[in-house]
Amino acid sequence: MNFQRGKRREDPEINLIPMIDVLLVILIFLMVTTTYTRFAEMQINLPQAEAEKSLEKPATINVGVDATGHYMINSNALPSGGVEALSLALRRAAGDKPDPIIVINADANATHQSVINVMEAARQAGYSHITFATQAKK
User: Fold this and answer.
1) Hey, what CATH topology would domain 60-132 get?
2) Global pTM?
């Protein structure tokens, strides 16, 4: 029963502004109290050393492998491509230089076995520093 016939009821309304204010205060509180990872907290004093650049270039032996499996050591073609012949040629190319760096310049179409033969020959000769030469894409 409605005893108040002439009066209209007011529709309830939600005021969002105070709720937004409260949420902003909570957000600011969380941002202020959050700790971020800091990498600069650990103070490290690194040791200092004075060294001159080495004037000697390390000894390098360039080994070329073409697509057909032929080998060249320091621009000298090898007549046979066996591992033993490669090992002997690497020792001759190194001379009296201890542990030279073997640089393998293999053709992109060279077989995997050809490159492995050079690595095996370097191992047999006692050389452990092996690297590969590459070329940047154009």
Assistant:
1) Nucleotidyltransferase; domain 5 (3.30.420)
2) 0.58
